[in-house]
Amino acid sequence: QQQVKQSPQSLIVQKGGISIINCAYENTAFDYFPWYQQFPGKGPALLIAIRPDVSEKKEGRFTISFNKSAKQFSLHIMDSQPGDSATYFCAASPQGGSEKLVFGKGTKLTVNP
Amino acid sequence: DARVTQTPRHKVTEMGQEVTMRCQPILGHNTVFWYRQTMMQGLELLAYFRNRAPLDDSGMPKDRFSAEMPDATLATLKIQPSEPRDSAVYFCASANSALPLHFGNGTRLTVT
User: Fold this and answer.
1) DSSP character for A12?
2) N or C: which end of chain A has fewer CB within 10 A?
3) Which of A98, A103, A108 to mutate to probe the B interface, most B CBs <10 Å?
4) Would you tell me how many other CB atoms lie within 10 Å of the CB of residue A79?
5) Touching B: A residues 41-100, CB under 8 Å
6) Would the CA dihedral through B32, A49, A103, A30 be positive or negative?
7) How many A/B residue pairs have CB atoms within 8 Å?
8) Which residues of A100-109 are buried (b: 16+ CB within 10 A; e: fewer)?
9) Which candidate from B4, B42, B93 shows the least CB-CB separation from A105?
């Protein structure tokens, strides 16, 4: 059973465009929602995270939007750059931290110059 | 810049052989995780430790996989005997009281 569903599987965006990746979950006990970025040959690295007490969190060009009632959250990358080309994973945890972190299947983002 | 160190980076072995992967967590981190990444299943949690004690290994095939922390600076994941279906990238991650996770660069295992 996939607890966090991520879409799309792959995404191609032009430089300067907006990249949007969506995730949905079912477990209402989830209360920590991080996004990880992974480059080829590297491990995932924490990009940005949100807790359900806020509906949006912004860090630079990266924004998480969170809809608790719909059990959905999304990552928006503004002014996408070729250097943003990577695989992005959403995740969720029921214990407010990284224990029992459940990952989505990932989205491969390609930003064309 | 503190980082999680995993060795080896690549391992090719024949079916039936024993494989040992090692991880040096970030100094001061008390929680260590082992994940497996495949195209089909994505990132799966295999096991994790806190203060060297195993807390959960329910994601790990018990008959052939074992995970240990001989000391605070070393975590090991062992597969014996290895099978082709074990081919994957194995990641170690560490954290200070579970927030946030810092991943190593993984061990790419190929079992022929």
Assistant:
1) E
2) N
3) A98
4) 12
5) 41-46, 49, 89, 95, 97-100
6) positive
7) 53
8) bbbbbbbbeb
9) B42
- Say if the Cβ atoms of A98 and B100 lie within 8 Å: yes
Q: What is the pLDDT of residue B2?
A: 78
Q: State the residue for tokens 């329910």.
A: B58
Q: pLDDT tens digits for B23-49? A: 999 999 999 999 999 998 899 999 999
Q: How far apart are CA A47 and CA A90, in angstroms?
A: 10
How buried is residue B39: exposed, middle or buried, by Cβ count under 10 Å (0-12/13-18/19+)?
Answer: exposed
- Give me the torsion for CA of A66, A50, A88, A47, rounded to 10°: 140
Q: Compute the Cα dihedral for A36, A53, A32, A96 and give only its sign.
A: positive
In chain A, the percentage of residues whose pLDDT exceeds 70 is 96
CA nearest to B100, candidates A102, A30, A32, A21: A32
